[in-house]
Specification:
This protein has 343 residues and is α/β, with parallel strands linked by helices. Helices cover 36% and strands 13% of the residues. Strands 4-1-5-10-9-6-7-8 form an eight-stranded parallel beta sheet, with helices on both faces.
Length: 343
């Protein structure tokens, strides 16, 4: 297992999120990645390397040019507008009856390019966001060129980010960027398996009309959980993408025995797709002790989850997504990756 990692994620710090009638320190914090890298080092789990630099055009293969430009310039624009708050966030969002207009106002642009207020911009955000995507791109290159497994230790995460919208702690869709890069490098198809507790709405929307990317997601039923408005079982893809998007909404309280049945069916679908490699959007917020979620998967279960995915017999690119039990995220990641790599 080769892990790609950068300390630049620590620049994306001081994040605040809504909690009742006040703001608190965000659960999407630097300690998540710090604890994962420490656990990997303690476990001696494979080699570690920093990311390569990539042209911004790698990002705009998945995201719009306008959106990437917004992310790059949002903080300077916030400052130039005389805003003093440490977190730049929207007050108004585009919804039914409103135009998706790219305004001169940074407040308007923040609402144009986000679907909720959980992805604020701070002074170091762009450097961390871009480096997170470059981590995924570097890991994709490793998998494509060596046919070996790789782990992209990305922060901030990405699977909620759509072509031109941030949300759910996500800005650039690292898993989608990696999948597209592997297609561009010569693979004729790629499967993306999302095992985060929350549905990967951004990944689904990016590939929804395509048949060269199979998107499969196991997640809490959106009737009960974020992101609420995508992730239902009847969302099968459109046009030539029909049949190439598969959702497994699962009830609150799901434990490993039940989850594993759905995972087995998902893996059967991936086998039929005959993907030469797989991108796994690894959310460790399915953990029983996660403060944000309501599944019952234990640390030992992640070893079996990784092993089940290894049974596909194809190279695995694992991209870190969610997981907010900070003290447990490292050992859960190690368990999963050991399962993927095998004995």
């Amino acid at each position: 297992m080769i892990t790609v990692f950068s300390t630049d994620h620590e620049l994306h710090c001081g994040l605040l999120e809504a909690s009742g009638d006040r703001y608190r320190a965000s659960l999407e914090c630097a300690e998540r990645a710090i604890n994962v890298i420490a656990a990997l080092q303690d476990a001696g789990l494979g080699d570690m390397r920093g990311p390569a630099a990539f042209d911004i055009r790698k990002l705009t293969r998945v995201h719009s040019h306008e959106y990437v430009d917004f992310l790059q310039n949002a903080w300077p624009e916030w400052q130039q507008a005389g805003m003093t708050a440490s977190n730049a966030r929207a007050q108004t969002f585009v919804c039914a009856g409103l135009r998706a207009k790219d305004t001169r106002s940074i407040q308007g642009r923040l609402g144009r390019y986000a679907f909720d207020d959980s992805a604020p911009i701070v002074a170091g955000s762009w450097q961390a966001i871009r480096r997170s995507a470059e981590i995924a791109l570097t890991a994709a290159d490793i998998v494509k060129s060596t046919r070996k497994n790789a782990f992209a230790l990305c922060r901030p995460p990405g699977h909620h980010a759509s072509r031109d919208c941030a949300g759910g702690y996500c800005y650039l869709n690292n898993s989608a960027i990696a999948a597209q890069a592997m297609i561009d490098a010569g693979l004729d198809r790629i499967a993306v398996l999302d095992v985060d507790y929350h549905h990967g709405n951004g990944t689904q929307s990016i590939f929804y009309e395509r048949n060269d990317v199979l998107t499969v997601s196991l997640h809490a039923d959106p009737e009960d959980e974020y992101p609420y408005f995508l992730g239902y079982s009847d969302e099968a893809g459109e046009r030539k993408g029909h049949g190439f998007n598969i959702n497994y909404p699962l009830p609150l309280g799901t434990v490993w025995k039940e989850y594993r049945k759905a995972l087995g069916d998902a893996l059967d679908n991936i086998r039929r797709f005959s993907s030469p490699a797989i991108v796994v959007a690894l959310g460790l917020d399915t953990f029983a002790g996660d403060p944000m979620t309501r599944f019952g998967i234990e640390t030992g279960d992640y070893l079996e989850m990784g092993s089940d995915i290894r049974s596909l017999g194809i190279p695995v690119l694992t991209v870190l997504e969610g997981g907010y039990a900070v003290d447990a995220i490292g050992r859960n990641a190690v368990a999963f990756l050991r399962g993927v790599d095998g004995p």
